[in-house]
Design a protein that fits this description.
Layout (H helix, E strand, L loop, with lengths): L1 H22 L3 E16 L14 E16 L2 E12 L18 E11 L6 E10 L10 E12 L5 E10 L22 E7 L2 E3 L2 E12 L7 H4 L7 E12 L5 E14 L5 E14 L4 E9 L9 E2 L30 H4 L8 E14 L2 E12 L14 E12 L4 E14 L5 E3 L3 E11 L1
Parallel strand pairs: 13-15
Antiparallel strand pairs: 1-2, 1-21, 2-3, 3-4, 4-5, 5-6, 6-7, 7-8, 8-10, 9-10, 10-11, 11-12, 12-13, 13-14, 14-16, 16-17, 17-18, 18-19, 19-20, 19-21
Length: 445
């Protein structure tokens, strides 16, 4: 019933907005995408041929639709919905496809966007995408969030952006006890983050320094890995970083990240601090764009869990490829295929990488290719609690073939291969290779 109620609410909301559109100057714009594909794989997550994979094939799809309710160029509201379906899975994916025991519709975005009159100050409040500046997605914060952000272009050279987001608030609810009194739960159960960024634009060079600060109450439901800490007391976290892009030598361009972060509990029992850096150099040829890249982030030390050297993360969005970070050609994606077994690769921490990307390769009209070659090695101490350490490594090959059927419709084929060694897993150096292939479609509207 919950899903049916959500659908009815969405339809009622759309109808109300349509009626309002006819009576006012509000314009409704619709955009989005739908991706669907079938995947065949072997050793996708366990890297062990002796254990039979539970499912070597599945078909999945994702549809995202965004409704922009535009009053003027300075005022609009945005509603974003997402529907994820694995064919044959649950009441919404089996025969009939109209079951209501699952919740196939997710509210991805719901925010207000406006610019203050006669200024360049823009305000965006609600469920929105929030990310600190980065090259490969940010390892600390890069996610959808309930937030308010305020940005302004001060002049042609300087800009400023500030934001606040709440990640956890368990006290706020509408539940009541048997006598009708509200159930408030525990105090100090919130997790918050605020940030400030000051982008600077010069001729052929942009630099975006930023600072972020997060705080968590002693009773917050926060996984230990989220902050690199076990939050058994009030915890604080801060990060200093800068993102830069050099374009003055175009078609040769450079992009870089430098991040330092630290976190600790209020009683000082647990502390961690670490850093991350990324560098990418790209050159655009007539028939392809070549990018050399490398990232490095400190990992776990062998000094004990109460004193660590890993960069604390909150809601990461980092990624290089399907196995290292979870970047795919389809929007229907997962975290990192290497994460479940190797316990590394989802956020870039505890990892050193180097690789080459050949993108936009085209020899035939409407047909293009992308090739990623990536090598990863752990940076955690061998005697640390990490599974993937400085003694372990992995190599990935990822190929994407894309054919444009229409201007906005593509047929896509992915081919992925990953081989790794990890001494901590069953006392063996070599893991069985993992590979997958997909065939599907991507439509943007």
């Amino acid at each position: 019933m919950k899903t049916r109620f959500i659908i009815q609410c969405v339809m009622a909301f759309a109808l109300c907005m349509t009626l309002a559109t006819g009576a006012s100057a509000t314009e409704l714009k619709v955009r989005g995408n739908i991706d669907m594909y079938g995947m065949w794989s072997a050793n996708l997550r366990d890297h062990n041929s002796d254990v039979s994979d539970s499912d070597n094939y599945f078909t999945t799809q994702r549809m995202r639709t965004y409704f922009d309710y535009v009053a003027t160029e300075n005022l609009k509201a945005v509603l974003g919905l997402e529907i994820d379906t694995v064919w044959g899975s649950g009441d919404t994916g089996d025969w009939g496809t109209d079951g209501n025991t699952d919740d196939p519709i997710e509210v991805k975005h719901a925010y207000l966007n406006f610019t203050l009159p006669d200024t360049t100050v823009n305000v965006q409040a609600g469920l929105q995408y929030v990310a600190l500046p980065s090259v490969f997605g940010h390892p600390v914060f890069d996610d959808d969030a309930a937030a308010i952000t305020v940005s302004a272009q001060i002049n042609d050279m300087f800009g400023l952006a500030v934001g606040y987001t709440r990640g956890v608030d368990e006290d706020y609810n509408t539940e009541t006890d048997k006598d009708g009194a509200p159930i408030t739960g525990m105090s100090k159960d919130d997790v918050d983050m605020a940030f400030i960024a000051a982008p600077i634009a010069l001729d052929g060079l942009t630099i975006a320094p930023y600072f972020a600060y997060a705080w968590a109450g002693a009773n917050a439901s926060l996984e230990a890995t989220t902050l690199g800490l076990e939050v058994n007391d009030d915890a604080t976290f801060m990060v200093f970083g800068a993102n830069a892009e050099l374009t003055m030598f175009d078609p040769l361009t450079f992009a870089a990240d430098v991040i330092y972060g630290q976190g600790e509990t209020d009683n000082g029992d647990i502390e961690t601090e670490g850093w991350y850096a990324a560098l990418a150099a790209s050159y655009k040829f007539d028939m392809l764009t070549a990018t050399l890249f490398s990232t490095y982030a400190t990992g776990f030390s062998d000094d004990g869990l109460d004193d660590q050297t890993v960069l604390p993360t909150l809601a990461e969005g980092w990624g290089l490829s399907p196995y290292i970070g979870g970047v795919r050609a389809f929007s229907t994606t997962y975290d990192s295929f290497a994460t479940d077994t190797l316990k590394v690769g989802s956020d870039g921490t505890g990892l050193w990488t180097v690789g080459l990307v050949l993108d936009n390769i085209s020899f035939v009209e409407k047909l293009s290719h992308k090739l990623v070659l990536a090598y990863a090695q752990g940076t955690s101490d061998e005697d640390s609690p990490a599974t993937f350490t400085e003694e372990d490594s992995g190599f990935e090959v990822y190929l994407v073939n894309k054919y444009m059927i229409y201007e906005n419709l593509a047929a896509i084929n992915e081919l992925g291969y990953f081989s790794a060694s990890c001494e901590d897993l069953e006392k063996t150096d070599d893991l069985d290779a993992s590979y997958f292939t997909t065939v599907g479609f991507a439509y943007k509207f």
